[in-house]
From TrEMBL:
S-adenosyl-L-methionine binds at residues 21, 26, 71, 87, 92, 145-146. This is Phenylethanolamine N-methyltransferase. Transmembrane segments: none annotated. GO terms for molecular function: phenylethanolamine N-methyltransferase activity. It comes from Salvator merianae (Argentine black and white tegu). The keyword Cell inner membrane does not apply. Keywords: Methyltransferase, S-adenosyl-L-methionine, Transferase. SUPFAM superfamilies: S-adenosyl-L-methionine-dependent methyltransferases. GO terms for cellular component: cytosol.
Amino acid sequence: MSAAGVTAVAESYQSFNPRAYLQNNYTLPRANFTSEEYAVPWKLRCLADTFATGEIRGQTLIDIGTGPTIYQLLSACDYFEEIVATDYLEVNRAEIRCWLSSKSSVGFDWSPFIKHTCKIEGKGEAWEEKEQKLKKKLKKILPIDVHQPTPLGSSLSEPADALISAFCLEAVSPDRQSFDQALRNVTTLLKPGGHFLMIGALEESFYLAGEAKLSVVPVTELDVKESFDKNGYRIRDFRSYSMPPNLMIGVDDVKGIFFVHAQKLA
Ligand SMILES: C[S@@+](CC[C@H](N)C(=O)[O-])C[C@H]1O[C@@H](n2cnc3c(N)ncnc32)[C@H](O)[C@@H]1O
């Protein structure tokens, strides 16, 4: 693994702007809830379908590289007692704390995401109820570095029942080797037999977040599958989404999105 590459990535994240990132990815046109042809509802569908099986549950779920977003935790919150958010940057952890504590609209407005998730889950749950449930279960917001052999240091004593991660490993790894190593590192946080749900960018080389231009290691579907295979997982589901031209808006060069549900071998 290139240590210099990892250091350069860490430096580039120092100017990451959470609000600009949210604006680029979690407003129109990508967060258009009228059809699953749009990127955000496609991701929410993958998560809702997978959690609806009822198979992925337990005491603790860790989200790797939460960033300033909570959409990835909405369908999960029915199935875990405790959800742990993690991020490398304090500005992103602060954004999550802001959402947790605010009763008004100080932070980003996640209500359309919550309403849509309630709708596709079809349980007749009121969106305010889901929001409160997630806020109650989101018990820790921890610093993480996926390039360390113990990414959370000594913060958690028990491995988690499940991991989730969206757009993190490829966005913080300078090359394929370091992506594989990062997956190996975070796998130590998961119990044998535990489930990993990962969403990520296909064939992307950069994205923007305000002044920051972040390099991304371009990965194919095959690269992702190989990496999970090599790290001792069985792939249970793999889905991909091709980015339609009307969602290519200059904030990145992503070609598509993958969703993988993998289970760590016991
Ligand atoms: C593309 S964002 C993804 C955010 C969010 N999960 C989403 O779905 O939009 C990548 C995230 O990885 C975080 N990050 C950067 N370096 C990291 C590292 N070494 N370990 C873990 N996370 C890191 C960034 O702060 C950022 O929040």
